[in-house]
Amino acid sequence: MLSFFHTRHNCYCAFCKSPRRIYRRKNISFMNVVGSALASLVLMFALWQQYDPRVLIVFVICLAISEVFVKIRWRLSVVCRSCGFDPVLYLKHPEQAANKVKEQLDQRRQDPKYLLAKPLNLPAIPADKAKALQEKGKGRLVSRSI
Ligand SMILES: [Zn+2]
Which domain holds residue 98? Predict the structure, then answer.
């Protein structure tokens, strides 16, 4: 019952292994439906000062807006703030996800804010394996910490 109120979930980044918190919900819950109903009732009395059947349209619009916000909130919370790894993008387009991580790591390298920060725990590839991968021409190395 207590986990019903916990909207965030503790986990680790799949790439840099840093601890993070992500939102559990991808879609609206019963409480969002109740909130949308209340918001549409308030809007109805504010606009028409009595019961009006157009409240159903307002209710559907409120539901759609809350669904969009919950979706955006979940989507933004999934992306790692430390290394920029995006698991959703990785499933669809691994190359684009690798480019995003590379950009984020380059920015992090140049930003003086991170000079004394704890270094990221990036996956390490031994030098001989990295060389073999580059000779094969399969993909590009995002980072190599050895
Ligand atoms: Zn990460």
Answer: 87-136
In-domain check, residue 12: no
**What's the gap in Å between 41 CA and the centre of ligand 1?**
43
11 lies in some domain: no
CA 10 to ligand 1 center in whole angstroms: 13
**Residue 122 φ/ψ, nearest 5 degrees:** -80, 150
65 Cα–ligand 1 center, Å: 30
For 94-144, write each residue's pLDDT tens digit.
999 999 999 999 998 898 888 888 888 888 878 888 788 777 766 666 555
In a domain, 108, yes or no: yes
pLDDT at position 71 = 95
